[in-house]
Each structure stands twice: as structure tokens, then as C-alpha cells.
Design brief:
There is one protein chain. With 294 residues, this protein is of the alpha/beta class. The chain is built from seven helices and 15 strands. The strands form four sheets. The protein has a five-stranded mixed β-sheet with strand order 3-2-1-15-6, with helices on one face. It has a five-stranded mixed β-sheet with strand order 8-7-12-13-14. Strands 10-9-11 form a three-stranded antiparallel β-sheet, with no helix packed on it. Helix 1 runs antiparallel to helix 2. The longest helix is centred in the first third of the chain and has 20 residues. The radius of gyration is 38 Å and the shape is globular. It starts with a helix and ends with a strand.
Length: 294
């Protein structure tokens, strides 16, 4: 205690010197106040440790504003340094807010788009996602799913290959062995007279309905739609090589029901998923399917 008394005298002397010299603060004054008054009170038990931590030290605050010793502690007390976590979360959310599609392909006047993105040109599965156009950009419609694509992957298609064509294609026609699942796309329910033509000629890559005396082969390479189940329980025509039709460029490409294996060039998904997509598609939205590698 005699040491504390002596220290108090020294502090008084320093204050007198400060008054004489007209200084706002004298080096060591802050430390003197802290050790002789505040800390001594804590040690003696006149204030609690919790109160001690909350007692403001105005000389220290004023020194921090003008003295060089204040420069180091300032960043620790500056609240502006605490928001890194907020910056991180806004950065992470940016892709969702961007409103862009995963494939850089034309969408025309479509306000409904389906993207089919394969991880490589040789992949036999791809990620399928439906999208709606909004004023802020494209917004995902429902969850993404795994789709099966051609056994030869995705890229340049041709007749006889098992490659799914890459590109942007309209979706204007649906059909199926089963009754219309409430799609608003034009829909026909197949019968034994329904065929899709893959033989060369004027009817190449078109739907034909003929029971007998037909102008095409009622067999290979043409597809007898009614009997192609479960694949064509439901299907949406992918308008590849439809206008103009190029002989040999490939025919009969559909979004249809999967059996869990690679296709002969079509895009295939589970039947329940396909029905949901067909019920969502609307001719007024000029829907398209975008297929590619990404």
C-alpha cells in the first residue's frame, strides 16, 4: 500500500506538470491512473472483476484518438472489420442470382427451357433441369435430375449413330402409348398404325399414320411407335433435323421414358418426371431443349 501511495503522489505531480505546460495528456498518465486507481480497487475488492472489465477509461480513449500508441489497437475495436462472413455469403449466393443458363446456346423467344448438360462428349448420362424465364433471368423449375443420353455420348448426330445431338431445339409435339397426361402440347395417342420414318426419302424424319399399303417400309429402320414401350409410354419430340430435313443427319430423337440404360440418341428420364415436365410445358411459352457438354 505504501508503494501505491507513493505512486499516487507521482501521478499528482504529473498532473501538475501537465497543467503548467497546458498539455492534454502526459505520457504515462494513462498507465498511472489505471494501475493506482482502477487495478488497485480490483485487488482490494472494492469493485468486482466483472465491473472492472466494464469501467471505461476516458484518458485511454482520448489517447487512442491522438497518440501513436493507439494505432495498433484500433483495428481490434473497429466493427467494420467483422463482416467477412456476410461478404462470403453474398459471394456464394451470386450464381443463383445471376439468372443464366448452364449452356451458352440460343433460346429464341422461349420462356420455358430444358437444359441437358453432359460432363463430357462421351458421357452417357447428363443433368436435366427445367427453367422458367423471369424479369430477373432464368429460374430453375423443380429439381435437377439425371437423364440418360446416347450410348455414343453428346455431339454431332447422324443416322445410324447412337449420339445425342447437341444444340438448341424447339419442343412442339408430344405423343404416347398412354392417354394424354394433361399436357397442353399437341398430343396424339399412338395406335398400331403410327410410325416414325427413318428410311431415306420424302418422309424422312416424320410421323406417319398408316395401317396398310403404306409409302414406307413397315419395319426397320422405321419405328413402330405403339409397340416401343415403356420408352414411348410418353414422349416429347425433339425438333432436330426438322426444318429443313437433311437426309442421313439423324431421325426420331425424343425426350422419353428411361429404362435406366443409355439410349440410341434420345434423352430419357423416369416416367413420373417426364409426366411432370409434359404438364408444365406450354406452347405459349415456345419451349426449347438445350443439349450440350458443360
Amino acid at each position: 500500500r505504501s508503494h501505491e501511495t507513493l505512486e499516487g503522489v507521482r501521478c499528482l505531480d504529473r498532473r501538475l506538470i501537465a497543467a503548467v505546460l497546458g498539455l492534454a495528456a502526459v505520457g504515462g498518465l494513462t498507465a498511472c491512473r489505471s494501475t493506482t486507481h482502477h487495478d488497485a480497487a480490483v485487488r482490494s475488492g472494492s469493485i468486482s472483476a466483472e465491473s472492472a472489465s466494464s469501467v471505461p477509461s476516458s484518458p485511454a480513449s482520448s489517447t487512442a484518438a491522438v497518440g501513436p500508441r493507439a494505432q495498433a489497437p484500433v483495428p481490434l475495436r473497429t466493427p467494420a472489420l467483422s463482416p467477412p462472413s456476410a461478404a462470403k455469403s453474398s459471394t456464394a449466393a451470386a450464381p443463383a442470382a445471376a439468372g443464366t443458363l448452364p449452356l451458352n446456346l440460343p433460346t429464341g423467344n422461349a420462356s420455358q427451357v430444358i437444359t441437358v448438360v453432359a460432363s463430357s462428349a462421351s458421357a452417357t448420362t447428363a443433368v436435366l433441369q427445367a427453367w422458367d424465364a423471369t424479369s430477373g433471368g432464368w429460374v430453375a423449375h423443380g429439381p435437377s435430375i439425371t437423364a440418360h443420353v446416347g450410348g455414343a455420348g453428346v455431339g454431332h448426330a447422324s443416322e445410324g449413330s447412337t449420339r445425342t445431338p447437341a444444340g438448341s431445339f424447339t419442343l412442339t409435339q408430344a405423343f404416347g402409348h398412354d392417354a394424354n397426361p394433361a399436357t397442353s402440347l399437341p398430343y396424339f395417342q399412338t395406335t398400331p398404325a403410327d410410325w416414325w420414318i427413318s428410311q431415306s426419302g420424302a418422309l424422312y424424319n416424320t410421323h406417319q399414320n398408316c395401317a396398310s399399303g403404306c409409302a414406307f417400309s413397315q419395319g426397320d429402320p422405321n419405328e413402330h411407335l405403339y409397340y416401343e414401350t415403356p420408352y414411348y409410354n410418353y414422349a416429347v419430340v425433339i425438333d432436330y433435323n426438322t426444318g429443313p430435313v437433311v437426309q442421313g443427319a439423324g431421325s426420331a430423337f425424343f425426350l422419353h421414358v428411361t429404362d435406366g440404360t443409355p439410349t440410341a440418341g434420345c434423352v430419357a428420364v423416369p416416367q413420373a418426371t417426364l409426366v411432370t415436365i409434359m404438364q408444365w410445358l406450354s406452347p405459349a411459352a415456345h419451349p426449347r431443349i438445350l443439349i450440350g457438354v458443360g
